[in-house]
Design a protein that fits this description.
Order of helices and strands: HEHEHEEHEHEEHEHHHHHHEHEEHE
Shape: globular
Largest sheet: 8 strands, mixed
Strand content: 15-25%
Structural class: alpha/beta
Distance between the termini: 49 Å
CATH architecture of the largest domain: 3-Layer(aba) Sandwich
CATH topology of the largest domain: Rossmann fold
CATH superfamily of the largest domain: NAD(P)-binding Rossmann-like Domain
CATH class of the largest domain: Alpha Beta
Number of domains: 3
Radius of gyration: 24 Å
Number of strands: 12
Strand order of the largest sheet: 3-2-1-4-5-6-7-8
């Protein structure tokens, strides 16, 4: 018998019935992923229309009164997370209950203040999402390769921990263990403040002249991509994690004031160094971000002009394959009003010459090289 090629198909860790409360983006995405693995998924949502939509799209089935889930996943907005966790722990006394809220300390403190027995509760948070929300935007693959934080405590049993870890691993995520306060400080820095910065910058475009916006390139699009997120959800997230977010914002505000002061008198002694140090420190910060396979390394970029016609991307990747050039990352920037795009191909430095010469010989136009 031929072994399945998908490792996840060979050893699915999640068994029995999984109940998902909240049929939005994360809840429905978990449902799609588990359903694809053959797991029985039941869905519940405060909105009948949202629930019906998630079921119609195949994220699971409608919950029945006699369901006996072994795992309950709470995927509801932060302002009701604690309430739903408490309810699910009481309604399903044999189940392990986890949640996927982006803030971990506030719901935990609320539950402890109520005297809820949290022996079977394990907080978790997949660092995955999209700018769009709801069941219609759900995708089974959004967790693959993404961090999934698990916040256990001394009362957590090894068996219950294995259930939540198995869920994350079945969905292709990478496990991280943190304390709730550590998690909240971390996401304030790498998720919550970046959302605010993107929104503040994009907000400057509202009253900007149209001619200015026509000059926008991929850099500003990258910087403001997440500004399209839903305000209603982010009001809850930021309110629940306010203290760590304010700490980062205050430090960032000091940095901005320092740069602004230097630029008010750019010829004054030390001003240019202050600006250069700001850019250099940003370089150092970017280099610390994990890259492909968790490597802290940078790649060179080959920029290729790609005609806006069917089959061009397939031909480009086919040519790169023939040249034995591994694509570490790829981004396509469309040029407004032009019938072509700029394909930015990230490669290891040693492959730049091979890619450039080989693609040129095959008729591709190279726009530029960046290091």
């Amino acid at each position: 018998m031929t072994e399945p090629t998908d490792a996840r198909a060979r050893a699915v860790r999640t068994s029995g019935t999984v109940r998902i409360v909240g049929a939005g983006l994360l809840g429905s995405s978990i449902g799609h992923a588990l359903t694809a693995l053959g797991v029985d998924v039941v869905l519940d949502d405060a909105s009948p229309a949202q629930l019906r939509l998630a079921v119609d799209y195949g994220a699971g089935r409608v919950a029945a009164p006699d369901d006996a889930p072994g795992l309950v996943v709470v995927a509801v907005p932060p302002d009701v997370t604690a309430d739903v966790i408490e309810r699910e722990l009481a309604a399903h006394p044999e189940a392990v209950v986890t949640d996927v809220a982006s803030v971990k300390l506030e719901p935990l403190q609320a539950l402890r203040a109520r005297g809820v027995d949290l022996t079977r509760y394990i907080g978790s948070h997949p660092m995955a999402g999209r700018e769009r929300g709801g069941a219609i935007a759900a995708r089974a693959d959004i967790f693959i390769g993404r961090p999934w934080v698990i916040c256990r405590d001394e009362e957590t049993s090894a068996r219950d921990l294995a259930v939540v870890e198995g869920l994350a691993l079945d969905l292709g995520a990478m496990l991280f263990e943190m304390r709730p306060a550590e998690h909240d400080r971390s996401v304030a820095l790498v998720s919550h403040v970046p959302q605010l910065v993107a929104s503040l910058l994009a907000g400057r475009f509202v009253d900007a002249p149209e001619t200015s916006l026509q000059l926008a390139g991929q850099g500003v699009r990258d910087t403001t991509r997440i500004a399209a997120s839903a305000p209603e959800l982010w009001v809850q997230i930021l309110g629940a994690n306010a203290e760590p977010v304010v700490d980062v914002l205050d430090a960032l505000a000091d940095d901005l004031r320092g740069v602004a002061s230097a630029l008010r008198a750019p010829d004054s002694p030390g001003s240019r160094r202050a600006v250069a140090d700001t850019i250099r420190r940003g370089n150092e910060g970017v280099e610390r971000l994990p890259g492909k396979h968790g490597q802290h390394r940078r790649f060179d970029t080959v920029v290729v002009i790609v005609d806006d016609t069917p089959g061009q991307l397939g031909r480009l990747f086919g040519d790169l394959g023939e040249l034995e050039v591994n694509v570490e990352d790829f981004r396509l920037e469309h040029s407004p009003g032009a019938q072509f795009g700029l394909g930015e191909i990230a490669v290891v430095p040693s492959a730049v010459a091979v890619a450039t010469e080989g693609l040129t010989a095959r008729g591709w136009k190279i726009a530029s090289l960046n290091d």
